[in-house]
C-alpha cells in the first residue's frame, strides 16, 4: 500500500513571493505518477502539475514547478510569484502505473495555503 | 460536457434515509472514480469503473454503499440507511484511460442529521 504525507497543515506567503509545499511518499512500486492538486474554497479539485517517476527532469507548469527526489521519495511543489488566486488547499497524490486497469489516487492530508497582500 | 458534473451539490438526509448521488463524467472518459472526502482530510478512494464494469470496490466502507454505471457513462452512488458518519463530500473523477490524470467534479456535500 502507498502512503502520502504532507507535514505542513498550513502555510502563508505574501503576494509575489515564492513558497514551497512539502510532500513525501512511501511505496514499493517502481513505476508511478505524482500529482499536485489544488482545491479552492469552491471545492473543485484542479490538477496543478504531474510528474512521471521515470522522468529525471522536474515538471514545470508556468509558475508551478516540482522538486522530485525519487531516492528520497520526496515531491515538493514550488509556487513562484504567488497570487491571491493561489489561496487554496493543496493535495499531493500518488498513482501507480498500471496495465489493464486504471489506478486510484492516494492523497495526502493537504496543506492550506494562504496568500496575503 | 466541458467538465465533470455532479448533482445534487448539497444533500441533507435524515439518519436512515437512502440517498443517490449522480456523476456525469467528461464525454469519452472510460474510467470513473468515486472518492469520499471528510472535513479537513484528503479524498479517499471508494470505487472505480472502467466503462460499465466496476473493477474495484475495495474502498466502499460498508454494504450500505452501492455504485453503478450501467451504460458506461453516468454513474450513481447510492447510500442506504444513511448514518451520521456518512456525512462528507463525495467526489467523482473521470479520466481518459490508463495512466491519465483524473479530472474532478465539484462534489456533493452530504449531511446526515
Rounded to an integer in angstroms, the radius of gyration calculated over CA atoms of chain B is: 13 Å
Regions with little confidence, pLDDT below 50 for 5+ residues of chain A: none
Helix fraction bin of chain A: under 10%
Average pLDDT score of chain B: 95
Cα-to-Cα separation, first versus last residue of chain A: 41 Å
The helix count of chain B comes to: 0
Count of DSSP-assigned helices of chain A: 0
**What percent of residues of chain B adopt helix (DSSP H or I)?**
under 10%
**What structural class should be given to the helix and strand makeup of chain A?**
mainly beta
Please specify the SSE layout and strand pairing:
The complex is a heterodimer of chains A (117) and B (113).
Chain A: E1 3-5, E2 10-14, E3 19-21, E4 24-26, E5 32-39, E6 46-52, E7 60-61, E8 64-69, E9 74-79, E10 88-96, E11 106-107, E12 111-116
Chain B: E1 5-7, E2 10-13, E3 19-24, E4 31-37, E5 44-50, E6 53-56, E7 65-68, E8 75-79, E9 88-95, E10 103-104, E11 108-112
Parallel strand pairs in B: 2-11
Antiparallel strand pairs in B: 1-3, 3-8, 4-5, 4-9, 5-6, 7-8, 9-10, 9-11
Structural summary, described in words:
The complex is a heterodimer of chains A (117) and B (113). In chain A, strands 2, 5, 6, 10, 11 and 12 form a six-stranded mixed sheet that branches. The model of chain A has no long low-confidence stretch (mean pLDDT 95). Chain A is globular. Chain A has strands at 3-5, 10-14, 19-21, 24-26, 32-39, 46-52, 60-61, 64-69, 74-79, 88-96, 106-107, 111-116. With 117 residues, chain A is an all-beta fold. Chain A starts with a strand and ends with a strand. Chain A has no helices and twelve strands. By secondary structure, chain B is mainly beta. Chain B is built from no helices and eleven strands. In chain B, the strands form two sheets. In chain B, strands 2, 4, 5, 6, 9, 10 and 11 form a seven-stranded mixed sheet that branches. In chain B, strands 1-3-8-7 form a four-stranded antiparallel sheet, with no helix packed on it. In chain B, strand 7 and strand 8 (75-79) form a beta hairpin. The model of chain B has no long low-confidence stretch (mean pLDDT 95). Classes of the chains: A mainly beta (117), B mainly beta (113). The A-B interface holds A 4, 33, 35, 37, 42-47, 50, 91, 93, 95, 97-110 and B 31, 33, 35, 40-45, 48, 50, 55-56, 59, 89, 91, 93, 95, 97-107, 109.
Amino acid at each position: 500500500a502507498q502512503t502520502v504525507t504532507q507535514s505542513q497543515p498550513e502555510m502563508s506567503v505574501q503576494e509575489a513571493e515564492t513558497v514551497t509545499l512539502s510532500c513525501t511518499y512511501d511505496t514499493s512500486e517502481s513505476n508511478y505518477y505524482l500529482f499536485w492538486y489544488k482545491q479552492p474554497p469552491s471545492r473543485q479539485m484542479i490538477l496543478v502539475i504531474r510528474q512521471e517517476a521515470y522522468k529525471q527532469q522536474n515538471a514545470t507548469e508556468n509558475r508551478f514547478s516540482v522538486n522530485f527526489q525519487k531516492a528520497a521519495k520526496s515531491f515538493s511543489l514550488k509556487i513562484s510569484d504567488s497570487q491571491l488566486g493561489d489561496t487554496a488547499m493543496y493535495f499531493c497524490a500518488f498513482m501507480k502505473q498500471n496495465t489493464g486497469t486504471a489506478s486510484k489516487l492516494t492523497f495526502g492530508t493537504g496543506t492550506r495555503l494562504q496568500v496575503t497582500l | 460536457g466541458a467538465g465533470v458534473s455532479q448533482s445534487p451539490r448539497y444533500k441533507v438526509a435524515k439518519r436512515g434515509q437512502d440517498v443517490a448521488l449522480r456523476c456525469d463524467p467528461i464525454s469519452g472518459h472510460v474510467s470513473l472514480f468515486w472518492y469520499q472526502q471528510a472535513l479537513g482530510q484528503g479524498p479517499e478512494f471508494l470505487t472505480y469503473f472502467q466503462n460499465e464494469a466496476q473493477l474495484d470496490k475495495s474502498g466502499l466502507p460498508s454494504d450500505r454503499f452501492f455504485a453503478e454505471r450501467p451504460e458506461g457513462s453516468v454513474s450513481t452512488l447510492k447510500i442506504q440507511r444513511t448514518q451520521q458518519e456518512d456525512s462528507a463530500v463525495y467526489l467523482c473523477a473521470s479520466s481518459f484511460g490508463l495512466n491519465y490524470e483524473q479530472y474532478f467534479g465539484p462534489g456533493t456535500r452530504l449531511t446526515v442529521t
